[in-house]
Amino acid sequence: MMKNKVQLITYADRITGQNIGALTTLLNGPLKGVFGGVHLLPFYNPIDGSDAGFDPIDHSEVDSRIGTWEDIQVLGKDLDLMADLIVNHVSAQSFQFQDVLAKGKQSEFWDLFLTKDDVFPNGMSEAEQKAIYRPRPGSCFTPMQCGDGQTYDFWTTFTDNQIDINVKVESGVAYLNNVLTKFSANNVNIIRLDAAGYAIKQAGTNCFMLDETFGYLDNLSKQANDLGMETIAEIHSHYQTQVEVAKRVNMVYDFALPPLILHSLFNNDVDALLKWLQISPRNCLTVLDTHDGIGIIDAGPMGDKPGLLNAQQIDNLVETMHANSNNQSRQATGAAASNVDLYQVNCTYYNALGAKDFDYLLSRAIQFFAPGVPQVYYGGLFACENDMELLTNTNVGRDINRPYLDANIIDKALNKPVVKGLIELIKIRNSHPAFAGEFSAQGEGSMCCLSWQLDEQTISLTVDFKLRHALITQVSGDEETTINLNSFLA
User: Fold this and answer.
1) Hey, which of 52, 108, 141, 382 would disulfide with 413, CB 3.0 to 4.6 Å?
2) Residue 485 belongs to a domain
3) Which residues are recorded as binding substrate (predicted)?
4) Are residues 135 and 116 in the same domain?
């Protein structure tokens, strides 16, 4: 069972400048006792593909430049350890797909990869193609000529270097089973189902989060559970979809929370946030920032479904983020950078808030008091600012928030008041018994109070957004203590 403690999201190499062993040393040294678990972002071969490891050539092999499976075992010995099961695709450079390119349909791996004809054997109409939901602009098919002289339209939901797997056929099932078995044998106890919403494609639909997809997630979760692992479904979609998915898997991400907190701070209005907290899944992980951009679609309208925020509020949210970051995020978002997403703004959360220390700590406090197990991204832990140099060098929008750090940078960051304050907040979230109790939320307009109670233990966060005033109150029997959030920056 996952610990109810804050987890770190990180790459092994980008946080340490070294490897998995150095990450273990960091977590047992300067960060000892801070985190109950770690989401180790792709450590597969290679870690530096076109999508920072999310396009594995070999999903079952640790990139030798950063360690071995033995290093993974050591990291997961005392911490919850999450790894990504990249459900939807594999690298075009994988030996399996290279064999397909060389031999075409004669390859033993032909069935592993999804083509347009697999889903549309009788041809695809223009209306059917327009109906397909894709998180990137352009077509989800890439024509490639194979060694048999034929050109085939391979399904590439994300990029032309990420070839979609046919998860329905025996070879697709065996491929993912092999990775799951490798995880379970090496102290990985939590599986993040990456891009799982796109795994099932069906003619005449939008090919995203279909009824059959829910069934597929059910089976995949049960399979992982049988191996002693919990599953987290990673799906960016309408907020009602998250509520439904949460009923079918062990846990989901609360991706609506980050934009709603920003909206509350930008407008001194908590109504949308409180509406969400009344209905949000309790079996969730909460984030503000991740290796991806800041999700927007999760709080907004989709088709004829109204959102927690309306279209104008979403537009104002995005424009305020751009303004707060001095338009740096605009340079990394949309058509301004390669490998773009339609539903995310690429920016550090710290810069999205205009690098205001109090607003950033308040955002984290709200996250920690919201239902779910909190995760903190390594860039967010150290209040990193947008890495414009890395963005310029790679022209990959997400790299604005995927910095390369080292021991010297970390040492300096740990002395920043905002980082010290964040670590103190993490320790409160990890240690107070009431966070295992019942949650409640009240308020309206610019005021809110988020509370947890377990027997005679209570902890609450009271916020006045207009005055930028926040208090953490702890009650144990007849004893009451109150901490002003500003004191965390002293």
Assistant:
1) 382
2) yes
3) 51, 89, 192-194, 234, 291-292, 341-344, 398
4) yes
Cα dihedral across residues 156, 49, 165, 296: positive or negative = negative
89 labeled binding residue: yes
Say which of 80, 194, 298, 387 is annotated catalytic.
194
Let me know whether 281 and 292 are in one domain.
yes
Name the phi and psi angles at 448, rounded to 5: -155, 160
Tokens 């909190």 correspond to: 374
Distance CA 317, CA 345 (A): 10
Q: Is 210 flagged in the annotation as binding? A: no
Give the number of domains in the chain.
3
Q: How do residues 141-200 score in pLDDT, each as one tens digit?
A: 999 999 999 999 999 999 999 999 999 999 999 999 999 999 999 999 999 999 889 999
- What digits encode the pLDDT tens for the residues 291-327? 998 999 899 998 899 999 999 999 999 999 999 999 9
Does 1 fall in a domain? no
Q: Are residues 177 and 134 in the same domain?
A: no
Secondary structure class of 453 (helix, strand, coil): strand
Q: Which among 413, 405, 420, 406 is positioned nearest to 364, based on CA atoms?
A: 420
Given strand 457-464, what is the order of strands in its sheet? 438-444, 447-454, 457-464, 469-476, 479-484
> Does 431 share its domain with 452?
no
**Full DSSP string of 78-126:** SSEEEEEEE-SEEETTSHHHHHHHHHGGGSTTGGGB-BHHHH-TT---H
Given 163, 197, 221, which residue is the final one in a domain?
163
User: Which 8-state DSSP code applies to residue 386?
Assistant: P
71, 153, 234, 387: the active-site residue: 234
pTM > 0.90: yes or no:
yes
CA gap 463, 470 in Å, rounded: 4
Pairing mode of beta strands 438-444, 447-454:
antiparallel
108 in a known ligand binding site? no
> Is 344 part of any known ligand binding site?
yes
Give the structural domain span for 479.
436-489
| CATH number reported for the structural domain that contains residue 31 in this entry | 3.20.20.80
194 is catalytic: yes
On the CB side of 211, how many CA atoms lie within 13 Å of its CA? 1
The last residue of a domain, from among 397, 414, 435: 435
